[in-house]
UniProtKB/TrEMBL annotation:
GO terms for molecular function: DNA-binding transcription factor activity. Gene3D superfamilies: Winged helix-like DNA-binding domain superfamily/Winged helix DNA-binding domain. Pfam families: MarR. It comes from the Bacteria. Coiled coil: none annotated. GO terms for biological process: response to stress. Residues 14-148 form the HTH marR-type domain. This is MarR family transcriptional regulator.
């Protein structure tokens, strides 16, 4: 195969995989949204993502939380205000410096993350069970490589979270 044909083939392969991932991501986002609204109607998908980050990483300063979420610190402040008002997160003095404030999950926030994750796992498992076993065989390896390339921790440590 010539270099030009190889490059064109690789490009179309990337396009085909990208299209497949985009299609699957629509399904996964829909599952996530349904799972959140079934457990807790007062929070949004981005707010849930904030809860998941805190669940996985522990207490964080606003700036570190904004970096993890890929948003502006002012956005995190508004999200934290909202989640504080519904009792899912709390602000407290940092254990390393009393001048710094960290955001942490409350017991209620942890409960919501666990329940939403359990609902998502159940719905995803039902979909995977409908797939032919031959199609499932390589899925774990492919999805693990995809998540690793994107910097997402494995579900076993990330609680299957969004």
């Amino acid at each position: 195969m010539t270099r030009t044909k190889a490059a064109a083939s690789a490009s179309s392969d990337v396009d085909a995989v990208t299209d497949a991932v985009l299609t699957a991501s629509r399904l996964l986002v829909a599952i996530s949204a349904r799972s959140i609204s079934a457990v807790e109607e007062t929070i949004t998908l981005p707010q849930f993502r904030l809860l998941v980050v805190l669940h996985n990483r522990g207490p964080l300063k606003h700036a570190a939380l904004a970096e993890q979420l890929g948003v502006n610190p002012s956005t995190v402040t508004r999200m934290v205000d909202r989640l504080t008002s519904v009792g899912m997160v709390q602000r407290r003095a940092s254990p390393t410096s009393r001048r710094e404030v960290v955001v942490d999950l409350t017991v209620e926030g942890r409960r919501v993350v666990r329940q939403v994750t359990a609902r998502r796992r159940k719905e995803i498992a039902a979909i995977v069970a409908k797939m032919p076993s031959s199609a499932r065989q390589g899925l774990v390896e492919v999805l693990a490589a995809f998540a690793e390339a994107g910097g997402e921790p494995p579900a076993s440590t990330a609680l299957d979270a969004i």
